[in-house]
Amino acid sequence: MLRVFQRTSRLSRAPRHPCIQSAASPTAQFLPVDLQSPLPVWGSAQFKVFCQNLHKETDGHRPSPAAAPERRPFSRLSGEDLDYFRTILPGRTITDPDLVESSNVDWLKSVRGSSEVVLRPQTTEEVSQILRYCNKGNLAVNPQGGNTGLVGGSVPVYDEIILSTSLMNNILSFDNISGVLTCQAGCVLENLSQFLEEQDHIMPLDLGAKGSCQIGGNVATNAGGLRLLRYGSLHGTVLGLEVVLAGGQVLDCLATLRKDNTGYDLKQLFIGSEGTLGVITAVSILCPRKPKSVNVVFLGCETFEQLLRAFQLCRGMLGEILSAFEFLDSECMRLLKTHLKLTNPISDCPFYILIETSGSDPSHDEQKLHNFLEEAMTSLLVSDGTVATEESKIKALWSMRERVTEALTHDGFNYKYDISLPVEQIYHLVTDMRQHLGNRAKSVVGYGHVGDGNIHLNVTSAARDPALLAAIEPFVYEWTARHHGSISAEHGLGLKKRNYIHYSKSSQAVALMGHIKTMLDPKGILNPYKTLPDHLR
Amino acid sequence: MLRVFQRTSRLSRAPRHPCIQSAASPTAQFLPVDLQSPLPVWGSAQFKVFCQNLHKETDGHRPSPAAAPERRPFSRLSGEDLDYFRTILPGRTITDPDLVESSNVDWLKSVRGSSEVVLRPQTTEEVSQILRYCNKGNLAVNPQGGNTGLVGGSVPVYDEIILSTSLMNNILSFDNISGVLTCQAGCVLENLSQFLEEQDHIMPLDLGAKGSCQIGGNVATNAGGLRLLRYGSLHGTVLGLEVVLAGGQVLDCLATLRKDNTGYDLKQLFIGSEGTLGVITAVSILCPRKPKSVNVVFLGCETFEQLLRAFQLCRGMLGEILSAFEFLDSECMRLLKTHLKLTNPISDCPFYILIETSGSDPSHDEQKLHNFLEEAMTSLLVSDGTVATEESKIKALWSMRERVTEALTHDGFNYKYDISLPVEQIYHLVTDMRQHLGNRAKSVVGYGHVGDGNIHLNVTSAARDPALLAAIEPFVYEWTARHHGSISAEHGLGLKKRNYIHYSKSSQAVALMGHIKTMLDPKGILNPYKTLPDHLR
Where are the transmembrane segments (chains A, B) (predicted)? Predict the structure, then answer.
């Protein structure tokens, strides 16, 4: 039943989708929190009311909870400030409006700031000098890596000074015995991968944005990506961090040890904190050996139930060589065909699975895969499939999964949700959403990382459609909360989702996050308006 | 060259080593930290002086830095307090001195507290009630799991109330598709392993103390153990925690999701905080599938350099099935023979390696192992070896590594160090220590987890010997700091090592830990005198 692979076109970068959104709204004030007092938290009734109010059009003019709050009373950039920056960063204090513009707008072109300066430090000491100065002068700072984030966390909201790590791109060391890489935060993920390839190793994470994203940003956003199923999250693979705190203090936790139980594991605080607690300047990370053999299969399933059973079978039979278990639905396939002219490499099915194996012995891996496929077909879990072992064919099969995002941008205006759920539930969200929206949406599609319980739900419409948005939200968030899921599995909260945090975190937890923010950044200068909900400010 | 396996005796629990140590010394006062001010930290000069002073006999009476500081001004337990506890925990408020005694003394019998009561809550709500009451009344609390810690962290120092999680031993859920287990903190590790075995899964960690240690304690101490090389640290495998904070607030971060980027990952703070920031009441953890085949080989090497080359070869050739790479030196083997009458299963060598593989296909695993052994022997990296595939033989080979601790207790008084280092350096510590001590020590041995860069250095003497201790410390800590290692790889700091933290953590980092402690436990009632150095109190 397995057929010869039909070549699809190669991976290419998705074009930017233009949909600039202006941002202004009246909200919260900056109030310091008294950390000595007991945690001030909301009762569950208050919390419910908050969530309901987020979406209520009380006066007909209520802005979206994703819109930016009012500018906080930070200082405005002065000529004197620029003179100082030019002294410490000669030639690397960028004020040319054309150059600054690309750092003001996010990759999706969905949010835009109005910063007037981009600072490009090369050393930790320079980052420290910048933050010491900004903290003293009450100047807000937007730390920026590759600017590939999807939730408006990587660009300024108003006139925050952009602190770019792009020139901090040195590899500091690599230990071939332990596989520990240490590098500056601005190293581009793909460059690190290429460097490691020569050392017979790979990075423990891989992303579609690898050509632009930086390791510091990956860590700051706790990027998940395509290898998480196999190598685990950055909370496990990052061994050390160097971080500059809001006041300019350098926190050196740049250990290269797999084990270190001397006190609290402070680096963990900064993994996933989206630049709101400190600026990551260097990273040490545990890198696996490069697998000697990689195989990819693309399979079709009649039901999502069968797909889940195939996943279970796969965990048992492929075991230690399973490195990805991804899926897309038939709606995704329709968009790939319609907008990108890709050819379905197998016969049409309601669901498609992409399985990747990575191992140290090609013949063993092929045999395991063969046994699994035989069992999956005999048990009627999959109805069709194709296998790729050559690199170009592997890339082409992967593109069926990776280019869904690109196909979606051609389908119209995108409403994007990145949800994690107990794995049995993930596709119910799509079917329920489809039923809920009826014919109000153009397309409702689901794809993602089954192995991680992570689905990307996307809804498209011909153009921006507030009525459609009101039908999607809070439905999607309430549905997710009801099923104990996360409203942001890997994209983070940034600007756009900060006010939805209560759907996935208890009010106690959110209050404690506020305390931590105040402890580490008392003036709130680091990446303001991001991650934490407005009522904490 | 591979020979038939010769049976060694089975695993047995090491006997407790009696060496009660009285604890009292004049030191630091409890000073609240102002969290709004910039981090108050020491300059590196101050830090050096502190480390030197730790070991200086200024007045001939200076106690060891490991000795307990003065009792802090917590309230004393009253009859009224006991009445309250008996009301909320009827029949589970233990005051019988014989029963309390075993909770006052640690497993090594190296430290002893003088608590008068052990509380045995069954629910999170009861833990919350206890802490709310204790925090209000300024009563200190010692959270206790299986009491198997090695650094005096698990027992009271003075009269702290012992809060035992032993009766919180319910498994709450297990998801067979994702492999996520959720349970109360008091579940014994071995019981969880047995439960999972029936579900075709295993725990991601395994320890010698598995018969007594509890999962809550494992998480609180960030236990490493024998499977870390394969499945990574608890920072990666723990998906959620429920924690009761000092004031009784329940922090619900008990997610069961592999991915969740909604705000700061608070649970990470409590992993490895040794009960000083909160009491862990429930854990959710990602469990791997049970491997279908396990093999163990025991090999001999002529030099440590060869052993490291064998490790590198092993990473490449065994790849994804490698699950342990442990070692012991010839001195360990001498003690196993002398004190436990074990027989070396291979010919005598300066170094011994134990390699374990775990995989999903027995024939593939055996072939990989065979290829590796052939290459290792052809390249003269190993000089002798034996293989075990049956469970009883596997256990016997493992006992050559696991019973070293027991053999050491028969050799005399033990000075134990748990050090992690860049892997190339780990054995240099042993040879340098041997040279440094000359004939002052009875034995100086090294064994441990090569794969994790973690060595257990042990020095023995006929009896407790302050002069020998003065020769070992600070030498061992200074050596470790000079080589960028950790002075506690997996054992934690507890009471005994709290004042040595500066050897592995920067003063900025230690200061920040103090801030976090003060934020979460303003009165310092949770596991006082542990983890953080006296000068922060």
Answer: none
User: Hey, are the CB atoms on B420 and A260 less than 8 Å from each other?
Assistant: yes
Reduced to 3 states, what is the DSSP secondary structure of residue A64?
coil
Q: Is A531 on the interface with B (CB under 8 A)?
A: yes
The whole model's pTM is what?
0.90
Span B522-530, mean pLDDT?
98
Window 437-496 of B, Cβ < 8 Å to A: 449, 452-454, 484-493
CB under 8 A, 24+ apart: contacts of B88-95: B88/B126, B88/B129, B88/B130, B89/B119, B89/B120, B89/B121, B89/B126, B89/B130, B92/B119, B92/B120, B92/B121, B92/B122, B92/B167, B93/B117, B93/B118, B93/B119, B93/B120, B94/B118, B94/B119, B94/B120
3-state secondary structure of A476: helix
Of A41, A263, A484, Cβ closest to residue B493? A263
Cβ of B422 and A178 within 8 Å?
Answer: yes
What is the rounded CA–CA span in Å between residue A197 and residue B31?
Answer: 52
Q: Which two tokens stand for residue A71?
A: 């500018």
pLDDT tens track for B346-404: 999 999 999 999 999 999 999 999 999 999 999 999 999 999 989 999 999 999 999 99
Residues of B in contact with A268 (CB under 8 A): 235, 265, 268-269, 271
> Of the candidates B311, B297, B298, B301, which has an alpha carbon nearest to the alpha carbon of residue B424?
B311
Query: B38 touching A, CB under 8 A?
Result: yes
Give the one of B38, B510, B515 whose C-beta lies nearest to A247's C-beta: B38
> CA A517 to CA A520: how far, in whole Å?
5
Select from B155, B73, B170 the least CA-distant residue to B118.
Answer: B155
Whole-angstrom CA distances from A218 to A120, A225, A285, A487, B516 are 19, 10, 12, 19, 25
Residue of A nearest to B261 (CA): A492
Q: Does B305 touch chain A (CB under 8 A)?
A: no
| Domains along the sequence of chain B with CATH | 10-14+291-405 (3.30.70.2190), 46-164 (3.30.43.10), 171-286 (3.30.465.10)
Chain A residues near residue B261 by CB distance under 8 angstroms: 221-222, 224, 272, 486, 488-493
